[in-house]
Amino acid sequence: MTRSFADRHIGPDRGETDRILSALGIGSLDELAARAVPASILDDAATNGLDALPPALSEHEALAELSALAASNTVATTMIGLGYYDTLTPPVLVRSLLENPAWYTAYTPYQPEISQGRLEALLNFQTMVSDLTGMEVANASMLDEATAAAEAMTLLQRANRKSKSDRLLIDTDLFPQTRTVLYTRARPLGIEIVEADLADGELPEGEFFGVLTQLPGASGRIVDWKPVIDAAHERGALVAVGADLLALTLINAPGEQGADVCFGTTQRFGVPLGFGGPHAGYLAVHSAHARQLPGRLVGVSVDADGDTAYRLALQTREQHIRREKATSNICTAQVLLAIVAAMYASYHGAEGLRQIARRVHGHAQWLAAGLGDAVVHQSFFDTVLVRVPGGAEGIVAKAKGVGINLRLVDADHVGIACDEATTDAHVVAVLDCFGAEIPVGPEGALFHGKQRPHIENRTSEFLTAPAFTKYHTETAMLRYLRALSDKDIALDRSMIPLGSCTMKLNATAEMESITWPGFNRVHPYAPVEDAPGLRKLIADLEGWLCDVTGYDRVSLQPNAGSQGEYAGLLAIRRYHLDRGDTHRDTCLIPSSAHGTNAASAAMVGMRVEVVKTSANGDIDLDVLRAKIADHAERLACIMITYPSTHGVYEHEVAELCALVHEAGGQVYVDGANLNALVGLARPGKFGGDVSHLNLHKTFCIPHGGGGPGVGPVAVREHLARYLPGDPLERDSHAVSAAEFGSASILPITWAYIRMMGADGLRRATLTAIASANYIAGRLNEHFPVLYTGENGMVAHECILDLREITKRTGVTVDDVAKRLADYGFHAPTMSFPVAGTLMVEPTESENLEEIDAFCDAMIAIKGEIDQVAAGIWPIEDNPLRGAPHTAQCLVGEWDHPYSRETAVYPRGVRHARAKVWPSVRRIDGAFGDRNLVCSCPPLDAYAE
């Protein structure tokens, strides 16, 4: 019998599924649906919205269809610029990193002892950014350049304690998409943006808390921003510079000129254009503002043996702690792409990057030499702005005819951007389009009859750490990448049972097309006719997601779940304002909600009111009614997660939605747990007005070690006009730099839905629910399951309550999490949504053998806890408190009350599973925060 893709994706086969259901006392998956999901929202299996989906294809049929879509796109020579450039990804990085499941299936490194590889790679990224910008601290990446600029704006405001101003000054030569996102984010926060041409160093009248400039500018011009920085500081303003990292290999770093913040993108460091993403943005500051940085920050600490170890630093800044007081809703990064960029820098080294930059600049110089007086700016790096009065459209059309896309700036100006992929032939072809003479070559070419300005004025060194000097051959890079990935646990090695995170199979057939040029070498601002295949794929996906969710319209622009949240809440806020309901500014949020919910609400200008949950974990409807009564006139919306953050189908959800609607509010349904709904219930039909969806959870885009992600926002028709628009249009309320966000990874979700079909998607959901209830049943007597629904069942995840165990024995969730590494497993989600608990989600991808192995490990750990409780092992020294155990710790004297064998081969591990050796012992987080180090040690540290 030929197996379908769904049979390959779903872990338990038919026999295993029957055994799981039998253990639950249930006869079929349909019976499970009726038992688990409230009848008030359950769709009929025959009319669940998925009937509109096309029939399932096999892997090879889907890839053939994708291939046809990719082939219909035009892979032109891209010379548009505006922060997006063609790049040459080293093949060793394509094969060993982008296409390697050891890297792309990893999760966010919240368990640092089994994440040292990607943490080291991210530390390299931070070092690369810090070195090139001349700043002391950089974070572990942002979502793109425009969102990095928006975060820079709010960072300047909160860091500038001396200024009372709410005005931000931006240079007119900022990238247009960056300007649009700044306006989107500034309006709800009451920030006034003032635009001015700052090239002459003069600031307009008035007070400003901050100034934003671009280096080089959108027009390509290079400006010495030192006078502007000095003038801004004299006026009490802080300065952020959006800087091109490749240009900074040649020109002075903004940090060395006094800039307070640097932001930008690392896309041109080996990360394909991808029709707009995913790309790793960056944000860097001086040490004085390190604790103001949003997002993730990798720091250096020590483990239990005193050895160097890496971890995420300053985690108290996370949204789950600060909630509506958070300064940002960013809770993800672009880890996989940041690592590509860091390894690109490592592979080329400082001198290699300089050579690439000089070649790029040389081609731009050559263009300028041929175009002579038509060139607008004399000082530039890669982009030449050309004045052709009335002739711009004709020039662009002529270039298009020979396969080159130039930028139509306006009727009189054309922009030409050179990049790593630009060749001499491209330069000659462009000059021919202008009817210009071809200069002899870039060397010694003249500009206005004299030697053009020399832009190379950087004197400081960069990328001197061993990470950037040792791996310039393919052999060395290949082994480095392998050595790093061996330090991590990803899905290619083990089940990752993370509640709320849905770590499911990322199938090879889904991933294969993302490295095809037809998808990843198209510029996001390329002519519409260049991307019919991409646009068809996007339209398909929008339609399918509407079918799955019951909504009317979807925007794929948000490039993370947090941005989807923001876009959805912004739509609600704008909807109320347009209706004249300016007073509707209160957002009700359950106390159990994801922390980003509250942060996103605050960012769109809403006031947060917390709704307490009842003893069974559900939203207390009596409390909700009281809250609605108290805030009826001001009620904007309620944010709920369904199934609840507690992993339960709340039976009164339809009534909850009706109560909010009756009071004039809107209902936002967080799509984090959609993996428990697909094919069973649709939020757009049971009361939701808007949801964001996590394509990196339910729809198989891999987590990539903490990004990329995609967080589309889906709405009912009355909110459709408020979805984010084209970022090149200033008032479009765009939330990211590209119209379709991280477009190059959308083929992953397209392939998943196309190959699963309606039946496969529904079976996947029910299998995930069955597996979660099976785990809950096996582990309940050892670790009580905290919350269940009215029928005693959980949804697709369950919460194991360790609080009484901790109270009785002193063994904590941290101890259990670290000990699981010795058993070869990644830990479940710790202390969310309830402190002192573990949240487990098996997904549909894990077969019964793996699920049982995890349960066996947890039961064995409970046996070890019992020995601590019995006094056989002291609480200060036992296998749980000593975990995880490295191979190195076995060498030499052993003075623990448990054996070496117990430490590293606990019961059931020796024969059942391949041994995982953590590379470090338990890490001292507090030490790392007290002694904050967020970049590679300097070269002299290695000499010492």
UniProtKB/TrEMBL annotation:
Keyword Transmembrane included in the entry's annotation: no
* Annotated keywords: Oxidoreductase, Pyridoxal phosphate
Carrying N6-(pyridoxal phosphate)lysine, the residues are: 697
One example of the protein's molecular function in GO is: glycine dehydrogenase (decarboxylating) activity
> What is the stated purpose of this protein?
The glycine cleavage system catalyzes the degradation of glycine. The P protein binds the alpha-amino group of glycine through its pyridoxal phosphate cofactor; CO(2) is released and the remaining methylamine moiety is then transferred to the lipoamide cofactor of the H protein.
Q: How does it assemble?
A: The glycine cleavage system is composed of four proteins: P, T, L and H.
**Alphabetized HAMAP family for the sequence:** GcvP (MF_00711)
Q: What is this protein called?
A: Glycine dehydrogenase (decarboxylating)
